[in-house]
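Aggregate trends can hide what the representation actually does to any particular protein. For completeness, the protein is quoted in full, as a sequence line and a line of structure tokens.
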Amino acid sequence: GLATPESKVFLSGGDENPYIYFEDMVESAAYWMEKIKAEKPDLIVGMCHAGYDYTLTPGQDANTYRNYNPVKLIADKVSGFDILFWGHDHIIKEETKQNGVVILGGNHYAMELSIADIEFTYSEISGKYTKAINGMYLQIVDNSKSGGKAAGVFVDETRTAPAAPSAVKLAASAAFMSKFGSVLNSAKDKFQKTIIGELKTALNSKDAVFGDSAFNDLVHHLQKYAAKKEFGVDVDMTIAAPLKYTFANDAYELKGTLVYADMWNLYFYDNLHAVIEMTGQEIKDYLEFTFGLWFKQMSSESDNLLALKSAGDSANPTRMKTEMIYWNMDTFAGLVYDVDVSKAKGSKVTIKGLDKNYDGQIDGTFELSKKYKIGLNSYRYGGGGGHFDAIGIKSSSMKDRTLYYSATGLRD
């Protein structure tokens, strides 16, 4: 089992946390592989909480020490694995054999399950086993769209058979549900139905990808409020991104009565928050990095607005995805600035002034040489997304600019 060094971003103090340190996954795999081989196992399976593509995090490549997503590198460089499972990057990948290793990546929310079939054949002559390994996926199909005949319907998506995918029905255990169902439903109702407020304005998560957004505004105001409540400090600015693209039941809009469960719609991750100091120049560089990956340079109205790349979908080769995943699409509040999508990377952003009241009105002068107090979540604080690394702020130096670090989560 191997876990991504990106885990450090969720720790108070990141790499400076005195109680835990994450090694380079390739080095760690090689170290433990030699010890495991000494036990003479018949099968070695790797379970990786990390992504497949080592370029997934901006600024990282095959030579990056403690790469966040090194599954492909592990298969290439560490001899001995029979199978590598991975999950972290929310990508499903067809069965791949690489360097003799069967590699299987599952999607998120158990939308697909990765399965490896292993057949051992024992040789009396050599006293050893030979192995035949086949990987496949079972894809969950929405029960409501399948006639409601089972709690879940799974489709065998292996590409080794030319026949149509076969459906495998999988129902919840009747004995388990009989014993625990009423307790579960009682707790769930309290959780889901406790009213905490009312949204007078509908929040649309799609807005946040294309421009000004009430959804993003709420998160910015929340972070400003949290810094004042917990630390007693008025931050100059906040950094926020849309942490969800769709809400419950694939809805893009949230409105009306809010219950506690809706906080998982509005703020999906268990992030803490912090206040740091940044110079005006660092803020400008940060914005240029974000919008440089977010928006394409347009020369005409027919060009794509968003920076897109191939989704790598062999069944639909024209399908595209954004170069920057939505939870890394950071904006600043506390500033008034323009993003000119006709300009090249590094020169898209013009900062017009400060917006101390978060109302879109310029009420102060922005200076590149001045230091500002910035509120942000713990994921970005720890280096998640690569934003700070891209502008030359290393995780190891973050403590020197940290004013406050919270003990409570932003969602609460």
